Fold this protein.
Amino acid sequence: MSNRFARILLLALTILIIQLQSLRAQTLSGVAYDQDNIPIPFVNILVKNEGSGTSTDKDGQLFLIPNSGRLLDVKRFRQSDFLLFSNSLESFQLLDTAMNTTQPYIELHYVHHFNGAIMNFIPLVKQLRIRTVGGAGALRVQETNFQMAEIYLGLERVFKLGKRRRLRIGIYGVAADSNFASPTATYKVSFDIIDTWKRDWSF
């Protein structure tokens, strides 16, 4: 009886050791996406506080064998669009290159819609139902010592598309400066459809 129990115990321990070894050698695979659900090619993926890491291929796919169970902690800042004004609460308008970091960073966004507080004092312009908007953003990435700040002012107009649908078109002047590039300024446009469930715009 004791020999049979010892054999069962030995078999159970062997199976447990094999499972633990296979779990440790398990490969993590997947695709890295940005905030717009677009695959990110050639970006470095690191396991925080650990030596293991990998890079995505041209399709954003990655394969990683971690040394422990720590979570991946990578922040990516996407490159600004050429002409389109993107969501100013989640991205920058004049970031000329995409970057990522695993180190601490500071990211600030602010936008204010004046809702007629300025344009309503101009009699003829008031009838056009044009609204003004202003905002700013700032970024500091410790890993590369990158710093930038930007400000923007714009004019927006809402158009009725249906009973509940609304389209907001805007044109903005944007200026930015960073410690890696010269000051720059440009104009951008935006097209935003209201969220009928939340009854709110994206920014």
